[in-house]
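Q: Structure for this?
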Amino acid sequence: MENNTIKKTKLFLSIMKEKIWLEQMALEGYKLIKMNMGMRYTFEKIEPTRLIYEIDRFNLPKNPTLSEIKSKADSLSMAEEMGWQIAVHDEDLNYYLYKEYVEGDINELYNDQESRLVHAEKYRKRYSFAAKQMLNIIILINIMLILVGVADGFSFYKIGSAYTWIVVGCTMYSAIMIIIFNKMGDLYYKEFSMTEEEWLQKNDYFNNNTKKVTKFILKSKSLQEFLKKEGENGWHPKKISFLKYTFVKGSGGEYQYIMDSKYLTNKRLKAIGANIIKDSKDIGDMGNDWQVQSVNDAEQLGWEFVSAIENKMILYRAPKENNVEQLNQNGKMPHIGILSYKVSLIFIISGSVGFLIGLAGAKLLIR
Amino acid sequence: MNDQILKKYIPMTESTYYTLVALKDPRHGYAIMQFISELTEKRIQMGTGTLYTMLGRLVDDKLINIVSQDNNKKVYHITEEGTELIKKEISRLAYQLENGEQIYGK
């Protein structure tokens, strides 16, 4: 074991964070020389340098053309011409290229948006391909299960056999992997579509002007108190969702918060004798016409839009000193929910129907 | 001129435009980047990936071709079709400029 190498184990979900970490290691005087299992990084000691790392891959399409077959060799040789070197590549054939940072030079592999998107798409494709393979595995093993069932004459007691449970286990594993692959493909696509600076700014990676809080709040009264408390420490809500609350450090005084929903907006409209917002064609409850009305009503009274949760509700604020009129009578606010009750109803009904069919089918087979 | 090519390339992005301009004379990758950088006084710098994607596309559309190759270093040159295309774009840009100066003055 030489004295001038160190090893670190880290698992990165975000490829931007991995890139930034490798660059920080270089600033501390460690250059990447080996990588195992996508987690075990080996560095050698060098003079602290500012290096830029880029991660790229060379997918081969189904029916590659001649230029596509040569694309890896060609693009790597062009990269080398431009001063990039290959540090390592991993078990998934991702190539880690690096180059010294030179002021005024191009310090990216892809420095215009068009080629950035081409690069991002390579990663999305790689993960959608992996997801497709998993889907094929699910279909294959389920076909095998059916064939075994046919061969055995569908005897009911066999359903408890080990073979069936293995198949069920594999199916669930593959389904989970499909979801993971899709999420990774989307994440990598988003990250590669941005430059490192844009990503750092968007995620406020080095500043401490943003904070995310995970909190489970059901009652609107508790939300109001939560926002008030954070406001006292100088944190203003920028984005809210059912579980995650994003705050930014802000100057400016304290605010009061209210929320509005479709039901409350329609209640207001009914009270003044206007037509309520209703769309019989909107079965999935996906329309957001009510939000246009809501913003109108709120801004007229002096409320400022803060954030909206899909088409479910809107958060407004107004300076605490201002004597703004409440949007809804008695300051009533909606509860925060996950799904609209209509969609939840659809899930419950279809789930029960599916269960009943399965039960009936099983009963028939026992007979 | 192939209608599809015209639709695809006109109006032209700056990267495409300057690449075609740079390849009036045969050049290889790095030299193309340097030529464009000097010509535009460092305003346009082509990254590796950008240039690589660009050259691949231009070769596929037969607007440039590979005239020689030593090791993996390829030398590119504009084709007749490419020359026709860039000339069309130059006159389109001249007209566009004229319109703008008409309304907004020089």
